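The data layer described in this paper is built around a simple, fixed record for each protein. We quote a single record here, exactly as it is kept in our systems:
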Amino acid sequence: MEVLILNGSARGQKGVTGRLLKSFIEGLADGNAGVKEFNVHSLDISPCTACLSCMHKVPGECAVKDDMEDIYKEMKRSDIMVLATPVYTDNMSAQLKKVIDRSICGMQGFLTKDRFGRVRHLYSWRMPAKFMLISTSGFPEMETFEPLIATYRAQALNFGSEAVAEICVPGSIGVQMEPDKLNRHVELIKEAGKEIAAKGSINPGVLKELNTPPFTVEEYLAAAAKYESWCRKKLGETDQQ
């Protein structure tokens, strides 16, 4: 099993997304999967220019030459692609969105109906057969992830891939104040990595527990109050009573 991980966090390995990915990758390694991770924020990747050279001039090849070349190579050889991103303004990070947009170079200008009867492009080369999402968010509610999940599933369909699992952990602001609250999720996501390596899917029970928020809303607000206090001190203000 070859797994491509795109870490779309603007903070790279420093944030909650990075902490979860570290444990997930350990699980993949324990399961003998091959893993290639890209920290997208540190790469030179330009936005898609919509020149359509990849469809009309040199099929399957992007006209823009930058660090996407290395990602394309891994996309073509991987079985699973993991999109890892915090929720930024209700969707994936801008860094990760550039990668997804640039991936249209695998599509042809010709059209067909997919297995669901929807019109889609044919392909010059194929993306990984399976997509997976790992996401975090600052707010505590699971509803925060709904726009991102809809986008991720639509992208999987665009590329003729299967969306196999979504791991969404809310409450990052609280976790930054109380890091131990994430310990159980860190343990579980390592187990999820082993299962992905072994069979390309995650046990529903493990997935359900992973998608259980680490805080109640009341617990989150109590932890977030510590963050707000820190913010006020940074701004030279005093705590509001």
